[in-house]
Amino acid sequence: MIIYLNIKEKNYVANSIMKNNHSNMGQLFIVATPIGNRGDITNRALEILSECDSVAAEDTRKTNSLLASYGLKKQIYSVHDNNEELASKKIVKKIINGYSIALVCDAGTPCISDPGYRLIKLAHEEGIKTYPIPGPTSIVAALSASGLASDRFCFEGFLHSKSEKRKSRLKNLARETRTIIFLISVHKIEENIKDIISVFGGQRQCFLAREMTKLHEQYIRTDLNHLYISLKKDEIKKKGEFVLVLEGVKEKNETPDILLAKKIYEELSGVLSNNKLINLIMKITELKRNDTYELLLNLKRKK
User: Fold this and answer.
1) Residues with Cβ within 8 Å of residue 21, at least 6 apart in sequence
2) Is residue 125 a contact partner of residue 149, using CB atoms and an 8 Å limit?
3) pLDDT (tens digit per residue) in 72-95
């Protein structure tokens, strides 16, 4: 059984924030909403949505439906990729005139691969107080269930729609040691995985989350090769939304040869060319050319 807060009773959090505002301005609340199951909304999000004057939303129809499911009805301003700059100015003007507004997206946390950044940036520029109301986000939900390293990770969002540019970006991530999280659209899932394999290889461990918290949710922990085969066989339905969590490159142990190569680089990188450095390191250590080149490249990036 799901028990919701009675939002018509004492809204302590919402009231305390709004009543403690001593300026004549309203406030902007960045409110996270469920990524699927509507029982995942927080009590605090319901309090803010019930007390604010109006709502700024990515899709007014979806947000109307969401609010109605909690017994709420609000004026909703549309803020999406095509109108965000103009809509942000109108909303900020409302807030300056004393209206408090809640920003939501279709699902999850606003601004995480969703509209809202321009509105929040403009609000800061105008001295408007902004408050995050935390809650669901698909990337953290997927990471938490992946079984992959979660102490350090990076979020890449959606890759480019064109394969050539997609591969170019992937090549920059090929030596990333942190766990990498991608969002992938249903229409691009197969070709995205194919390109990722072409750059990263098929042995990388990964976790694919589909339709999280929804009726047909599906989770797969495997390697990239088997994931691609499952997609080709339609064992993974090409429906809904996908989050891919990908294992980072495992850091090599720093052997005495690697430590010596690093020392040589630190002392002579400003004196010798890369080719001469590589040849010198290969003479003194047992490192191979490709490994030496990769090591120097990483050291140069860090520098």
Assistant:
1) 27, 129
2) no
3) 999 999 999 999 999 999 999 999
